[in-house]
Amino acid sequence: MFDKRKIRKEMKQVRRNLNQIDNDYSKFVRQAISENKSQDDIRQREDEWHYYGSAEKTRIDELLTQLFRIKADKYDIELPDYSETKYWEEDYGRKRLTRLGRQHVRELIRNERQERWEFFMKVTTLLTGLGGVIIGILSITCK
Questions:
Q1: pLDDT beneath 70: ranges in the chain
Q2: Chain centre distance of CA 48
Q3: What's the gap between Cα 49 and its chain centre?
Q4: Rounded to an integer, what distance in angstroms lies between the CA atom of residue 10 and that of residue 13?
Q5: Quick one: pLDDT at residue 72?
Q6: Between the chain's N and C termini, which has fewer beta carbons within 10 Å?
Q7: How does DSSP classify residue 87?
Q8: Alpha-helix residue ranges (DSSP H) falling in the chain
Q9: Buried b (16+ CB within 10 A) or exposed e, 97-121
Q10: What percentage of residues in the chain have a pLDDT greater than 90?
Q11: Which among 113, 119, 108 has a CA at the least distance from the CA of 77?
Q12: Distance CA 56, CA 21 (A)
């Protein structure tokens, strides 16, 4: 549980950083446009914006992958094979789930939760029915 909290806290901070980068660079680019800077200067500012923003987005993807690994372990779900490139991407030797990979794992987790819940509901229904039968038998015999 501690790991999930730590990851979520870091993700919140990274998202704040990304919002700050977006706010700062959008102002920076608008300012360059309003000052009639050259297209090269504007493009350089946009490239910087993309560079710093993509680093934060990559970190968010890495943190989400860690969260999905923890959830998959909790429900004993096997993650997709690393060779499936539609589910995994690699950057500097670090593997992380793609958006499609996260959707796939989320669906597997949802299915597992549903199966567990259905089993629990069947057992609860059975026990409730048995309890009702026992109470009925006791009320008839105790008259």
A1: 1-2, 143
A2: 27
A3: 25
A4: 5
A5: 93
A6: C
A7: T
A8: 2-34, 39-74, 99-141
A9: bbeebbebbeebbeebeeeeeeeee
A10: 49
A11: 108
A12: 9
